[in-house]
Design a protein that fits this description.
Layout: E1 3-6, H1 13-23, E2 27-30, H2 31-41, H3 44-54, H4 61-71, E3 81-84, H5 90-102, E4 109-114, H6 117-125, E5 127-130, E6 136-138, E7 158-159, H7 166-180, H8 182-189, E8 193-197, H9 202-214
Parallel strand pairs: 1-3, 1-4, 2-3, 4-8
Antiparallel strand pairs: 5-6, 5-7
Helix pairs in contact: 1-9, 2-3, 4-5, 6-7
The structure holds adenosine-5'-diphosphate (2 copies) and zinc ion.
Zinc ion binds next to loops.
Length: 215
């Protein structure tokens, strides 16, 4: 099964993608994670992407589509992909349709996670992740069971993203509304869109997501 989690920054896409990975034989394909890895490695792509990401704008379609196409050549995508943070523009959506088509694959569902803008600033400002395994946490909504220790891997080091500040979040939200929200109509026209309530607590969102995928 190949699915897209569609929603603004902080909607809970990464959180639910990691739960799905554990529960089903699917892999998370997060273009944000892939671009951050490129920035950290100092590659050509990383150098081009860094300033754009720091400003909360979208990296060019050409770069992002190239990164996804390479990733889709790896064997572990055969069990199904959870696209997280991709596509974000109509051009990316068209490129994905084409890419899947060429590989004899298709999209099973696009799940829109709806969250109010006001809640997103709080979600993003309180977000941190385990430096070792990447598990996501939140200062108030999802604290580690034991303070300072990752629930998943026992890691003791955590990190926060440079672009997770209130100012940059505003730009990222504007980019979402202007460039990404039109995809809702694109996938609705394909009959693939399901909408769930991203404002609910994490367990309830997981339940709604499962119902959207299996129902
Ligand atoms: P996205 O990948 O869509 O940007 P994340 O999954 O990283 O979003 O979630 C953003 C932050 O909000 C994280 O700190 C996460 O722990 C927290 N979070 C995720 N889902 C919920 C939820 N349903 N209710 C409250 N907080 C949540
Ligand atoms: P979030 O879900 O919190 O918005 P991501 O990790 O998905 O964050 O993305 C972080 C940044 O990486 C974005 O603000 C953007 O600059 C860049 N980025 C990620 N995915 C894409 C994409 N599909 N197209 C263009 N830029 C992207
Ligand atoms: Zn961890």
């Amino acid at each position: 099964m190949n699915i897209i989690l569609l929603g603004p920054p902080g909607a809970g896409k990464g959180t639910q993608a990691k739960i799905l990975e554990r529960e089903r034989k699917m892999v998370q394909l997060s273009t944000g994670d892939m671009l951050r890895a490129a920035v950290a490695s100092g590659s050509e792509i990383g150098k081009k992407a860094k300033a754009v990401m720091d400003a909360g704008q979208l990296v060019s379609d050409e770069i992002v589509i190239g990164v996804v196409a390479d990733r889709m050549d790896q064997p572990d995508v055969a069990g199904g992909v959870i696209f997280d943070g991709f596509p974000r523009t109509t051009a990316q959506a068209q490129a994905l349709d084409k890419l899947l088509n060429e590989k004899g694959k298709s999209l099973d569902a696009v799940v829109e996670m709806r969250v109010d803008d006001e809640a997103l600033v709080d979600r993003v400002s309180g977000r941190f992740t385990c430096a070792k395994c990447g598990e996501g946490f939140h200062d108030r909504h999802k604290r580690p069971k034991e303070d300072g220790v990752c629930d998943i891997c026992g890691g003791l080091e955590f990190k926060r993203r440079q672009d997770d500040n209130a100012d940059t979040v505003r730009s990222r939200l504007t980019a979402y509304h202007e460039q990404t929200a039109p995809l809702i109509a694109h996938y609705s026209a394909q009959g693939k869109l399901r909408t769930i309530d991203g404002m609910a607590d994490i367990h309830e969102v997981t339940r709604q997501l499962a119902a959207a995928l299996d129902g």
